[in-house]
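Section 5: illustrative case.
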């Protein structure tokens, strides 16, 4: 029998790590190729990962609730075939397997003296996510004991070490190096904020993996993206009349509800074509101008907020958008979204009006550069010409990344959305 290693997949663009939600098989269980093996949660998706081969589950390497980088070994399968060894990855040696007095079997180091160098663990490699977090919190990952597969150091290990007394002791140890600036707080500490006061009658609810991912991603977005915000109001009296005219026949004919969301998606898709800088992504030292218009729709579920993506939204009419939006929303609430459903977004729409709000400040779904909300449609007295009339009004709120988009471009975009919505009337076609 051969041993095949199952790795943490990359469940979406820019995803660097995943959290094991639930193992659907246990060691000794038989499994078919493509049968669901494990539920994985990332900052973009909660998805079932299929088995890459048929066989028997040999070992579970990462426990439920643990976060590991993309590409990390998470399980081993016994599959039919000649013994191929463990896998094609380099083994990672635990710290206890490498005596500090033994030199690594590599070419001799330069003889130039360096101040108080720390010994490097032989054979140990760290993922980019682990190295980045260790740098942020000001610790050496060589000091951290790994709990992952084969002694691999995970982000959770770094977080726990950074918050432990061991980290503070190491930081206070004598060193010939100059004193460094105080390290930034660990993400776990940032998320904690000010400590809560827990009284006897209170109930502590542990964070689910989805809620933790949402929290970390929202904090990261607010800390790294310079959010700017603006709002316009639109007179959608004609849109309201159009929907009222068609909604019953539409449901009977199409089998889905005719909500205001597909009209908003259509207007946003047209505006993204008219103002392409809004259909972009921040890329560190460059800006990626996206060719496809893939609009994410924020969907509330009992497990947390997710953002499935309507691919090529600019190629669909209102009827097509209504079908696609309802299909994605239903699958989100059933926990059946696929990786494909969640990937490739270039802009996000949040239908906050569905929960009764009239003014919100949404957080950008980085690396996208904008998110727009459609608030509740309410009747208000407004000035029309020289008279006052009761009209159906809606606020459109836009958050945008000021590194990429300037205020004039953002205003042009949201006003383009406004004009598209205001142009609709009772006689407008749905095609």
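Designed sequence:
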């Amino acid at each position: 029998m051969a041993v095949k290693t199952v790795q943490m997949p990359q469940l979406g663009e820019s995803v660097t790590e995943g959290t094991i939600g639930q193992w659907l098989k246990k060691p000794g269980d038989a499994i078919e190729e493509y049968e669901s093996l494990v539920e994985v949660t990332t900052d973009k998706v909660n998805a079932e990962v299929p088995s890459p081969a048929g066989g028997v589950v040999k070992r579970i390497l990462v426990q439920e609730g643990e976060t590991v980088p993309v590409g990390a070994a998470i399980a081993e399968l016994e599959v039919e075939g000649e013994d191929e060894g463990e896998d094609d990855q380099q083994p990672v040696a635990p710290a206890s397997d490498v005596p500090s007095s033994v030199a690594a079997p590599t070419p001799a180091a330069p003889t130039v003296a360096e101040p108080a160098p720390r010994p490097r663990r032989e054979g140990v490699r760290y993922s980019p996510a682990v190295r980045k977090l260790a740098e942020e919190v000001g610790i050496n990952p060589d000091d951290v004991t790994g709990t992952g597969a084969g002694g691999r150091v995970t982000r959770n290990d770094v977080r726990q070490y950074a918050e432990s007394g061991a980290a503070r002791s190491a930081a206070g140890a004598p060193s010939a190096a100059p004193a460094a600036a105080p390290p930034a707080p660990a993400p776990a500490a940032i998320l904690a904020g000010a400590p809560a006061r827990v009284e006897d009658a209170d109930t502590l609810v542990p964070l689910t993996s989805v809620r933790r991912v949402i929290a970390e991603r929202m904090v990261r977005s607010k800390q790294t993206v310079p959010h700017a915000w603006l709002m316009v109001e639109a007179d959608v009296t004609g849109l309201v009349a159009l929907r009222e005219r068609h909604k019953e026949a539409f449901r009977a004919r199409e089998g889905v509800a005719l909500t205001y969301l597909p009209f908003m998606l259509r207007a946003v898709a047209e505006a993204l074509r008219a103002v392409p800088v809004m259909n972009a992504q921040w890329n560190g030292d460059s800006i990626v101008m996206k060719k496809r218009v893939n609009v994410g729709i924020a969907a509330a579920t009992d497990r947390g907020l997710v953002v499935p993506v309507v691919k090529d939204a600019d190629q669909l009419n209102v009827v097509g958008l209504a079908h696609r939006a309802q299909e994605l929303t239903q699958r989100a609430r059933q926990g059946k979204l696929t990786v494909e459903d969640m990937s490739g977004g270039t802009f996000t729409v949040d239908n906050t009006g569905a929960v009764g709000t009239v003014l919100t400040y949404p957080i950008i779904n980085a690396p996208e550069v904008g998110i727009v909300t459609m608030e509740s449609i309410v009747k208000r007295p407004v000035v029309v010409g020289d008279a006052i009339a009761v009209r159906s009004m809606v606020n459109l709120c836009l958050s945008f990344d000021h590194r990429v988009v300037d205020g004039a471009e953002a205003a042009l975009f949201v006003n383009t959305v406004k004009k598209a919505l205001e142009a609709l009337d009772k006689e407008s076609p749905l095609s």
